[in-house]
User: Which sequence fits this backbone?
């Protein structure tokens, strides 16, 4: 297991702070959980504790961006998405150069239960025009994505995990905004995975390989703008495409792929692996992943039964 | 620029005419709250604020955020006469393709500084700019204008609490207390009083003025500049529809534009004041 992506984020943030004096960080009383705390220790003058006030924090970050800063504002993804109108008008419509960092993605957070789980955040934020929506798969990707985000123009949302994830990228990895990453090619099916599910999908594909199935795995770190080319390519090449995400199957990666596939004259059908339009609940992360078929075994089973 | 009180009054009168003309042309919009706010906005742009219409995005400019976005005709008129664009251009208000949107849009018109119209949000942006200025040791100031009904929004109080705790003395917020909102008087819809005590308890410097009296507006702005420890809130008591007798305190003029006949009647009244 590699780092949780929130941990990688916290480390990358300090590095960026050293390099870029206009990077500022805001947090709403969750800096220990979002891992923005270490930036605050090293750069107290550029770290702003905003209290439990997500809406005001979002507006303040927009103001800082208009004054030339590069703000990273941090909270749980569920709480940020809850301030959707402020994100829409103050950040999105105004094209504020703000990076919203939403940690605690999906049922993978475990015991705290539904109210703390970001399960609809990708769906909500994907509807905002000119809003980048990103989710790294592992430590290396998170760090490269962070470097890119300092230069990115316009609003962006970055979704991070609470739990540790399987490393899938090598150290020579290069981040390309809006481009899917082929981790493994295959002829029988392709899994398009994002975030914590990427490592699980890759392990599932390896297991299936041993059983004679040739499964491609593509890591989608940029959910918006979605990489239409790579979806088009595989929808012409394989009979079944799977989406895999720790998010509601409606509106997230599965939704984005369905929209794209519907516009392509491909031959494949789509099976969406994810949380099947239900609310989350308390439990151990591994039990929840098992229940929702998001673990290696669950993905393996879903792929096999769809190919049969 | 520092206009005299006499000239400021004259300028506000001229802007009132343009507000009514653009609303009549657009056939929709908010006259009541534009007319209640125009004296304050005039004092800011023609006396108080360091701005440069020829270099509108000058980084050291003072900032003005119109948090009550529906009052934007008052800001459009002010910016026109301050030299940012030809007053005639404002007559495209609310038309397809016009930068003069129904509510402020900073992408189409960067000098508006923020996009507002969903109430309670602009003041947070003002706070953020004030915090960035402080971080950069800039002496530029940030001004914001809110409506009285707007403080019913929860986000406004998040911001009041935060700006008070951050001691943002470079932030000055006007509250345009015209006593009405769409559905009726603020007292009936959702009483916001006692405002002075509430906002003082959030660690703000609170001043109270007649929002149509230029001497009082300028006096309050001077006091706000002298405050070194707290953000300043200027509770400006105003009259909704101020300057047009048949609009004053008549709440149907919150969000209805005058027709051509009503415009002529209003302009006639303003002309008499002018003379």
Assistant:
């Amino acid at each position: 297991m590699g780092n949780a992506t929130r941990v990688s984020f916290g480390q990358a943030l300090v590095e960026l702070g050293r390099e870029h004096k206009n990077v500022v960080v805001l947090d709403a009383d969750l800096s220990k959980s979002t891992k923005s705390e270490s930036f605050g220790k090293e750069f107290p003058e550029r770290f702003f504790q905003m209290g439990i006030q997500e809406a005001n924090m979002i507006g303040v970050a927009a103001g800082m961006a208009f004054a030339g800063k590069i703000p990273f504002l941090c909270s749980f993804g569920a709480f940020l998405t809850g301030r959707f109108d402020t994100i829409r008008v103050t950040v999105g419509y105004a094209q504020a150069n703000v990076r919203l960092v939403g940690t605690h993605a999906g049922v993978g957070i475990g015991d705290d239960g539904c109210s703390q789980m970001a399960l609809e955040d990708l769906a909500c934020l994907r509807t905002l025009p000119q809003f980048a929506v990103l989710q790294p798969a592992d430590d290396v990707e998170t760090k490269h994505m962070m470097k890119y985000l300092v230069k990115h123009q316009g609003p962006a949302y970055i979704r991070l995990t609470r739990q540790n994830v399987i490393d899938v990228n090598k150290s020579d990895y290069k981040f390309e905004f809006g481009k899917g990453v082929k981790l493994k090619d295959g002829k029988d099916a392709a899994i398009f995975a994002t975030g914590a599910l990427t490592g699980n999908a890759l392990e599932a594909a390896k297991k299936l390989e041993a059983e004679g199935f040739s499964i491609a795995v593509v890591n989608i770190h940029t959910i918006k703008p979605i990489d239409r080319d790579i979806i088009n390519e595989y929808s012409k090449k394989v009979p079944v495409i799977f989406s895999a995400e720790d998010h509601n199957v409606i509106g997230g990666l599965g939704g984005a792929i369905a929209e794209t596939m519907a516009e392509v004259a491909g031959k494949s059908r789509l099976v969406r692996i994810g949380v099947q339009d239900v609310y989350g609940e308390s439990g151990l992360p591994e039990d929840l992943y098992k229940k929702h078929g998001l673990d290696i075994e669950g993905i393996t089973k879903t792929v096999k039964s769809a190919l049969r | 620029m520092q206009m005299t009180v006499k000239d400021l009054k004259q300028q506000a009168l001229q802007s009132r005419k343009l507000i009514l003309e653009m609303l009549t042309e657009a056939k929709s919009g908010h006259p009541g709250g534009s007319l209640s706010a125009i004296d304050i906005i005039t004092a800011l742009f023609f006396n108080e604020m360091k701005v440069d219409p020829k270099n509108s995005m000058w980084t050291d400019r003072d900032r003005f955020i119109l948090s009550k976005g529906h009052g934007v005709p008052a800001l459009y008129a002010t910016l026109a006469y301050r030299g940012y664009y030809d007053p005639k251009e404002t007559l495209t208000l609310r038309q397809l393709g016009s930068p003069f949107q129904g509510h402020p849009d900073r992408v189409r018109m960067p000098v508006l500084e923020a996009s507002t119209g969903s109430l309670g949000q602009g003041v947070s942006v003002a706070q953020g700019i004030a915090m960035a200025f402080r971080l950069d040791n800039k002496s530029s100031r940030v001004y914001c204008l809110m409506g009285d009904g707007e403080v019913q929004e929860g986000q406004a109080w998040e911001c009041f609490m935060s700006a008070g705790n951050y001691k943002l003395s470079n932030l000055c917020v006007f509250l345009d207390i015209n006593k009405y909102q769409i559905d009726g008087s603020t007292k009936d819809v959702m009483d916001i009083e006692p405002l002075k005590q509430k906002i003082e308890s959030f660690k703000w410097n609170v001043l109270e003025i007649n929002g149509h009296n230029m001497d009082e507006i300028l006096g309050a702005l001077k006091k706000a500049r002298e405050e070194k420890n707290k953000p300043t809130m200027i509770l400006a008591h105003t009259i909704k529809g101020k300057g047009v007798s048949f609009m004053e305190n008549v709440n149907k003029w919150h969000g209805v534009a005058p027709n051509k006949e009503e415009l002529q009647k209003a302009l006639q009244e303003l002309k008499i004041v002018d003379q």
About this structure: Chain B has a mean pLDDT of 97. The longest strand of chain B covers residues 171-177.
